[in-house]
């Protein structure tokens, strides 16, 4: 599942493949941009902000968001794609490199002047060199009755956390995701852990929060429903969280609101 670390790594790979190179061929496989041709333009910057990724070509900026299924791949000329061609939304080629955006949840082309407006409403980026914990704390604290599990996922508070990190962070801090933000004893500590956790994974292809990179041992609770807690042995549960509490697993868009918890370690309410 793409989260801030995934997008950061995609930006790093795209930067290595395209940065400061002149595009030789471009193809936008969406109706709105099908006639665009950026060949001859130089890639001057590639950067992420939370779950958003930007590529500047000349005075244009290609903006993408991976959503649930998206991915950016880089290839050498003639190399076989690792995903089917019908999933490709944009192809960018430069000397010795090809970048392909597959199944992108959002793909837009903006002017360089318009690009900052895309992320203006977002909170501080956890993987930015200018990470601002104080602003993130203030934004979360502005809604004291809101569940911490909802506040962490709200990109307006801080940018980069998705379902996986939300579950792992709440477990490691011993928090029921429904705990009101005003009752989180050490919000600064939670934010510090959030930053450190994403930073530790920004260059890894396999996300790990336990410190154990062996297959099946990488995560504490996420995706481990009905498996024993690595700390206390209680069976991990999968829940659907909303602003009003836990809901039925069959509600619409349930995958976007999943949390995994240890009922004992996190003192989860029924």
TrEMBL record:
One of its GO terms (molecular function) is zinc ion binding. Keywords: DNA damage, DNA repair, DNA-binding, Glycosidase, Hydrolase, Lyase, Metal-binding, Multifunctional enzyme, Zinc, Zinc-finger. The keyword Zinc applies. Its EC number is 4.2.99.18. It is an enzyme of class 4 (lyase). It holds the Pfam family H2TH. It comes from the Bacteria. Residues 220-267 form the FPG-type domain. The keyword Zinc-finger applies. Residues 2-159 form the Formamidopyrimidine-DNA glycosylase catalytic domain. Transmembrane segments: none annotated. One of its GO terms (biological process) is base-excision repair. InterPro entries: FPG_cat (IPR012319), FPG_N (IPR035937), H2TH_FPG (IPR015886), Nei2_N (IPR044090), Ribosomal_uS13-like_H2TH (IPR010979), Znf_DNA_glyclase/AP_lyase (IPR000214). Gene3D superfamilies: 1.10.8.50, MutM-like, N-terminal. PANTHER family: ENDONUCLEASE 8 (PTHR42697:SF1). Belongs to the FPG family. This is DNA-(apurinic or apyrimidinic site) lyase. It comes from Hoyosella subflava (strain DSM 45089 / JCM 17490 / NBRC 109087 / DQS3-9A1) (Amycolicicoccus subflavus).
């Amino acid at each position: 599942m793409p989260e801030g670390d995934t997008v950061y790594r995609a930006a790093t790979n795209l930067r290595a493949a395209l940065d400061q190179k002149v595009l030789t061929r471009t193809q936008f496989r969406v109706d709105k941009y099908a006639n665009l041709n950026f060949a001859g333009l130089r890639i001057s910057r590639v950067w992420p902000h939370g779950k958003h990724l930007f590529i500047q070509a000349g005075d244009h900026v290609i903006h993408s968001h991976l959503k649930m299924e998206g991915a950016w791949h880089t290839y050498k000329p003639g190399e076989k794609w690792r995903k089917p061609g019908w999933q490709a939304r944009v192809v960018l080629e430069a000397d010795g490199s090809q970048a392909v955006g597959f199944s992108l949840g959002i793909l837009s082309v903006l002017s360089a002047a318009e690009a900052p407006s895309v992320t203006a409403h977002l909170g501080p980026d956890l993987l930015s060199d200018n990470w601002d914990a104080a602003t993130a704390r203030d934004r979360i604290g502005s809604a004291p009755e809101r569940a911490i599990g909802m506040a962490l996922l709200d990109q307006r508070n801080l940018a980069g956390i998705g379902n996986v990190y939300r579950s792992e962070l709440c477990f490691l801090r011993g928090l029921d995701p429904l705990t009101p933000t005003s009752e989180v004893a050490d919000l600064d500590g939670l934010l510090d852990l959030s930053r450190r956790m994403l930073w530790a994974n920004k260059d890894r292809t396999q996300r790990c929060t336990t410190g154990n990179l062996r297959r099946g041992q990488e995560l504490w609770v996420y995706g481990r429903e009905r498996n024993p807690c690595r700390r206390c042995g209680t069976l991990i549960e999968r829940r659907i969280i909303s602003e009003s509490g836990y809901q039925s697993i069959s509600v619409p868009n349930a995958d976007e609101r999943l949390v995994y918890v240890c009922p004992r370690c996190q003192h989860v309410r029924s």
